Amino acid sequence: LTEHELDEWGDPYTIAEYCPFTNVIGNSLPPTLVVGALDDVNVPYWHASTYAMKRKQMLIQMREDEVDDQRHLGETLLKIEESGGHNLIGFRL
């Protein structure tokens, strides 16, 4: 990163600690609705799909392992809009 980018975004190693994709852990998966949009210019729709798939795989693994406290194992729903995204045009739940 350049010095300007480092000031704006921060240390990439610190930012990685907050990444929802790499930090899906198996102790608690609350019910989650993951929403994406086909024409979102900031986040491609496949990022939402990949994240939802990773959560579902974790959920399946936890159920197969017969986790004691299944109260914290919520479903993951994925909704991909035709239009919308970060500009919220046409966004409806």
Q: What can you tell me about this protein's structure?
A:
It is a single chain. With 93 residues, the protein is α+β, with helices and mostly antiparallel strands. Helices cover 34% and strands 13% of the residues. It is built from three helices and two strands; from the N terminus they run H-H-E-H-E. It has helices at residues 3-9, 12-16, 45-64, and strands spanning 32-37, 76-81. It has a two-stranded parallel sheet with strand order 1-2. Helix 3 links the parallel strand 1 (32-37) and strand 2. It starts with a helix and ends in a 12-residue tail after the last strand. The mean pLDDT is 77.
The gist of it:
With 93 residues, the chain is of the alpha+beta class.
The stretches of 5 or more residues where confidence is low (pLDDT under 50) are none
Number of strands: 2
Structural class: alpha+beta
Assign a percent range to the helix content: 25-40%
The radius of gyration computed from the alpha-carbon positions, rounded to a whole number of angstroms, is 16 Å
Distance between the termini: 37 Å
Q: H/E series, N to C? A: HHEHE
Strand order in the sheet with the most strands: 1-2
Global geometry: flat
Sheet of most strands? 2 strands, parallel
Strand content: 5-15%
- The number of distinct helices, counting runs of at least 4 residues, comes to 3
If you average the pLDDT, what whole number results? 77
Write out key terms for the chains shown.
alpha+beta, 93 residues, flat, single chain, 3 helices, two-stranded parallel sheet
